[in-house]
User: What shape does this take?
Amino acid sequence: MTTKRAAIFDVDGTLVDTNHLHVVTWWEAFRQGGHRVPMREIHRAVGLGSDDLIEHLLGKDRDPEEDKQFVAAHHALYATYFDRLPALDAAGDLLRALAGRGWTIVLATSASGTELSALRRAIDADDVILGATSADDVADGKPAPDPVRQARERADVPSERAVFVGDTVWDMKAAVRDGVVPVAVLSGGIPRTDLETAGAHAVYRDPADLLEHLDTGVFADR
Assistant: This one.
């Protein structure tokens, strides 16, 4: 029986304080394309892959030819922050503490390419991160289980030996569907009740709070 364990992490809103940057830059991308989308609706869609986010907000009746325009505009706007993306307090320390306790660390994120590189620079913990599953690696993003499953398979562990930490309902639903333990943080701005309803087994304030409770929370039980 394997003794390996995997700690899989979402990135935006979970390890790096970027959700509201995504809200503003998606809002502006839609505005440039002639769409008025309330920021509160964009906020709740953050965590979906770009194609799913656009469909979720604009509907299936939209002109799909505009999608590439929205994605390009969002990327260009968001890229202006790449050199100053703020890691959440203790994010890197949390990953190193888990790695020091024998956990394999893998990322599962909707980000990809230069965006993912910028996020990893912000976290500054590549010395303990085995790898990352990005939007480029799967056919279906969260809430489908594919990103979590592929990250877990990269760590070479069964679902019962893995924990997934995220900040959105999409993260929790993906974790539930893959059979890993869903753990939530409130640092992405989603209410605790929504995260618990989506399946979170435990909810922490942020990475620093989770780090403080490693000896008493879900990580201590596995």
